[in-house]
Amino acid sequence: MGTEPRSAEEPPEQWALFRARRDEALAEPHGWLTLTSFQWLPAEPAVLGPVPGLWSADGASATVTASAEDGLTELVTAQPLTGTRTATLDEEESLRWVAYGGADGHRTEVELARRGGRYAVRTRDAQAPTLTAFTGVPTFGHRPDLVVPGRFEPYPEPVPEHIRTAHPDVPGTHLTAGEGRFGLPGQEAGFRLHASQDDDGSLDVTFHDSTNGVSTAGWRRLGIAPPGEDGAVVLDFNRAVNYPSAFTPYGTCPLPVPANRVAAPIEAGEKDPLR
Hints:
With 275 residues, the chain is mainly β.
């Protein structure tokens, strides 16, 4: 998750642009606000609630069988799906596979996903109430004092850490590349957060703080621009955002590693959208 370096003197219009782009991305026609179900695929072909067709999976691949009456359309070819199709995914991979319903046959998309070695489908309904009623994510006002300097201390090698996710049946792994050290206004002790690192060098941290369950969701995420040569970073908590699981019960988003608990309120960034 790449970002650009920022300072406490960020112009108001830059902050407003970030928020506008964030809300626009969430409001995509089949984005995260449109999830309406999550269902594991059975071993034998079966109907999955309102989803047309017969669905199944073995350990290696997933299969859907449909007739013309089912009204399924393959998203890659834009052609009606008749007969049987099979797809194979890697762990954590997803595929927007087919669509159905609505005047154009694309009201609901069916996403195939592989999580914890199992196949599942999620439906994305463009008319989901979570999207049609969306007017933007509530946020704290911009806090220049919560744009704080820090330092990234990389590990010799990334360390995998087992984590939970928003779905109780889906395990997760956090690849910790190192720790980000920083302080907060009015706090004598410093804090550390385990961070993952993308190919472009940018960092990503998932964290708890004492606002969780009060004014914010259960956990949030922060992207950090690549460290300088000396490891210097800037943590702009105004850009702390919610995971999709804050908006919908059908997410499989990663929880923070146990060490990523900040024993202080971080009253910046996105609030709980359901409060």
